[in-house]
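Hello Y.,

Per our agreement to keep a running log of every chain we model this quarter, I'm adding this entry. I've kept the format consistent with earlier entries: sequence first, then predicted structure.
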Amino acid sequence: MKGKAVTFFCVFLIILSLFVLIFSTVYVREEISHGQSYTSAKAMCVMESTTKRVLDSKNENAKLPMASTTKIMTAITAIESGKDLDSPFEILPKAVGISGTSLYLRAGEVFTLRDLLYGLMLISGNDASVAIGEYCGGNLANFVDMMNNKAKEIDANSSHFDNTHGLDSKNHYTTAHDLALITSYAMQNPTFKEIVSTKNIKITNSDGKSRYLKNKNKLLSSLEGCNGVKTGFTDDAGRCLVTSCEREGMNVVCVVLNCGPMFEESASLINEAFANYQMIDLTCGYVIPSKIKVTSGESEYIKIGTKGRYFYPLKKDELKKVKYVYSLQDEVEAPVEKGREVGKVEIFIDKDLHFCEKIYTMENVRRNSIWQKLQDLIEEW
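Predicted structure for the entry above:
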């Protein structure tokens, strides 16, 4: 009897294991079918930065601490504050001795804002963040308000900043999606982009004493096309990384929050995004006549065309979802000036309108009449 019980128990365990295996397989297949790549991150967002299309995500709208990736917002707020980046200013006592990663600033030292921004973004100086906030905002509280206002301007509406450095605070949080938006915005600024893509630099205070800074972002040296952006770590936030990468005209931003192997997984997510998506000039698909008829004109036809271009990241199987809708006049009456609107074209992907532009005349056509000819003769005479 005892032997039968053991046999039954073993059979039960085998059946249970098979059930778990089947369920796990179904779950993995379902996850893959939704296009989500594997990551151990608590939250993740991969975004094409020019169009803001989300290419991959996991818990992208979860509000989480973000550690020193906060400094992306600190830096762009400072750069756009109106302060001269190359004017030196004195370090106040309030910026000295800030806990965490430090530039080891001393009260009374004099640096330019540009140099402190390098100290902020390359080695993540918390003291540099406070010095920058005090200088650019007049005081730290006002500068943090500027950061929050900038977040609203960027439509990062699920974020709130409580400080300039990212040390843990209940009122300091963002989402992977918001942080991707913030980074996409910041990377449009040439000064910001230059700073975060710098691997090594020397900064010197007004007394001639130098500090040598080495960027903590390992992917700048190991990932093709990587041009930023920022690492971060606190006990509450875990390891966080925001990465920017550019290849063949496509700009990708990857955010991972609370991710142990942040460098490895970010590189994998970015490589997968470039493997799956390509920037397509959708205006190349236009089917528009090169000219339309002109009535009462010196020419029978007039050239027409468009002026814009629209690039969008697509998978290969998504090209069939692109549709063009045209509205175009059959003819125009002379006189016609170059640049006159004669129609429009709309680009849809599935049922969503993505781009719309006008169709214009590309030349002048005068009216064909005896009065026009008389006017021409008078002007020539």
